[in-house]
Amino acid sequence: MLELFITFAKIGLFTIGGGYAMIPLIKQTVVDEKQWATEEELMDLIAVAQSCPGVFAVNISVFIGYRMKRLPGALMCALGAALPSFFIILAIAMFFSRFRENPVVASIFRGIRPAVAALIATPVFRMARTANINIYNVWIPIVAALGIWLLGFSPVYVILIAALGGYTYGQLIK
Amino acid sequence: MSESSEYSESSEYSDYSKTINQLQNMIFLLLFITFFQIGLLGFGGGYSMLSMIQAEVVTRYGWMSTGEFADMVALSQMTPGPIGINSATYVGYTSVVNAGYPVWAGFLGSLLATFALVLPTFVIMIIISRFLLRYKSHPVVESIFQGLRPAVIGLIAAAALLLCNEENFGNPSTSPWHFWISLGLFLFAFIGRQVYKLNPIMLICMCGVAGLILF
What backbone torsions phi and psi does residue A56 show, to the nearest 5 degrees? Predict the structure, then answer.
């Protein structure tokens, strides 16, 4: 139980720049090291967490916690994901309201931001193999990515359309 | 005569202080309601929540100024943790302290806002988790996820692409130093993770140190 809390606290502590930055960390600890979930489950979870309202990172941690240890596990994981940032932000709001203008902090974060972009990109290729991406369906992730990136589509609609497409396809081949 | 005037004055005063008190106590209730709403309706993650927070906290209630809000956005992105949690904590504290409350009440405000933000999703996710674990192998659920998985790959790719902007990488003509170093750090982190399977937390720390030295 404590392990759940510590794992998600560690993930929460090193997630810089929002929910998706959490994915490489979750994949590394929860899937590769601890094997609490498979890569396929993580992908399903990302789709579900993305189509639910609220904080993406908390959604993911609640599911994994619930799967491991039901309600207490879900509570532990959600607390773990939320608490480190809660205390850091509280301390900043109280003592360092000029934190952002600190040149040391600014240059550290300038170095981290390109790394976060790179780390989010890395699971794409491995996950593509797990999702059975082949020459016939490779257009789906490409259209989804370009639609969101260039045309500003909401990921929620992409998820809804993909779910509908999967359902229709399942009915057709039956 | 003088007694009655004194009486009316003090009653007027107590009425006035009562309304002030009510208004100020309202801020805790309003904070809870506002962030509960944002948690319930905040589809699409942190960035869509930020615009909702701005509409409620800055425009509607005036708990924070536009400048304070801009500072908070930058801060939520720069500090670790989910952006939604970061901004709820910061807004909760700042709004209450701006309203003239002491620091401990600000702590209470940040706790309340963060709790209210997480509560609706927590309940929704528990229900969904139960449903998913039970019906995972149902053919309809299975075919829906068959469609979702390729799209999720696209979603993650888009998240990475969206971060590759001028704000994070600099501009090759106006700030070449920033741009080329950022590109180098991007490649370093990508290859370190993809080829050499280095720990992502270690890579983030290394790039932070590199940023400190190079920028």
Answer: -55, -50
